Amino acid sequence: MRSDLAQSYGQDRLPRYTSYPTAPHFSTTIAEADYRKWLKSLPARQPASIYMHVPFCRSMCWYCGCHTSITKKDDPIAVYTSGLRTEAHMVAETIGHRLPISHIHFGGGTPTIMTPETFADLVGTLRYSYFVLPDAEVAVEIDPRTLTEPMAEALGFSGVNRASLGVQSFDPEVQRAINRLQSFEQTAQCVERLRRSGVGKLNFDLLYGLSLQTVDSCLDTVAKCIELRPDRFSVFGYAHIPSFKKHQRKIDESALPDSIERHLHSETIAEALIDAGYVRIGFDHFALPDDNLAVAKRESRLRRNFQGYTDDTAETLIGLGASSIGRMPQGFVQNVVATKDYLAHIAEDRLATTKGYAFTEEDRFRADIIERVMCDMAVDLPEVSRLHGRDPRSAIVDRSRIDSLVADGAVTMIDDRISVSDGAEFLVRSVASAFDAHLARSAATHSRAV
């Protein structure tokens, strides 16, 4: 483990580069009229993806960085999902043809907080308004503590074939510190229900950098997870930004690990998963060797989007719901964040897009470089520059950062071909940031690099 590198670079606050440019650079100069124009220009036979955001949970996890709110009642969820169905139909009408869909992802919040009947109706709306391809991946994020048997059956009935389960940690002390009490037995029951209902592809989400977390608790959590043998793991570093998410103020900052400890926990989890037969994908995903993600890595066609690493090749992402971000060939669009404002837009027969970003040719150039760095841990600058008609000498924005990473052995650079060194994968965001022309002008607060 390279704790020296973690100490040198771990405090840097950097984007996760699930997009480029990143969301803080979106502006209100791109709004509904632009989105309508972009939708109408989508080609008829080119598959797209759909992301649907459900911003409700039954209780607040103090580590959460998502756009979500707490409700004990079902009425607000029913009203919101009615708005989602309307928006999905409005977008389809604007496109003007039945767009083929290769991936659907329900995120949140807790998408399975809605009733089984409501979820089935929502999927039915998507299948009516769009042409969901027979082999489409339909994925949903799940809180294992709240998944019922009828909801699991509704997921299978609706064609869901992948589920992401929030686990974070099985250490009871850590769970109390983050206000998320979730037993192994609850998680195992959720897994059993999903598999019995035909939802066979499972992802587990883990967190490191949490209060009171130790190496032993990380190893114990991984050992329990491996008993359930999910297809994939996402291992995220906790981003403590209490100025942005006020509920994070309930977390004891004095009990949070420093950069060296965070790195130790991260690499402890990574090594345990690799020893169990999982393949490392990028810097924070792991997959069984026959999983689509591992295959995409071997075949050098790994991509990165708002859900992290993916084998989704669609250039268009339709974002539905409050705060959802979409990607068009021309740029990014984002819906209004507040649920009440979102519903007001939909009720007035307006698309909810209120900001976005139109790509420049330089953005496309830099996005390709950053994606290759993030996905392949390497980039051939002359080749990417040739594809974009650019001078490779203009690619690096922060030369001092690259020089520092090379001097420290984290990166090798030969003839403008850059590779992240073995054991330094955790610093790939630092490498990618050297090509980010917007970062120096950003006032946004990002998560720690390690």
Can you put this structure into words, describing what you see?
With 450 residues, this protein is α/β, with parallel strands linked by helices. Helices cover 37% and strands 22% of the residues. The protein has a 9-stranded mixed sheet with strand order 10-11-9-8-7-6-5-2-14, with helices on both faces. The two termini are 13 Å apart.
Q: What's the Cα radius of gyration? A: 21 Å
Give the % helix. 25-40%
Largest sheet: 9 strands, mixed
Indicate the proportion of strand residues.
15-25%
Query: What ranges have pLDDT less than 50 throughout 5 or more consecutive residues?
Result: none
- Return the CATH class of the largest domain: Alpha Beta
Q: Label the overall shape.
A: globular
Mean pLDDT score: 93
CATH architecture of the largest domain: Alpha-Beta Horseshoe
Question: How are the strands of the largest sheet arranged?
Answer: 10-11-9-8-7-6-5-2-14
CATH superfamily of the largest domain: tm_1862 like domain
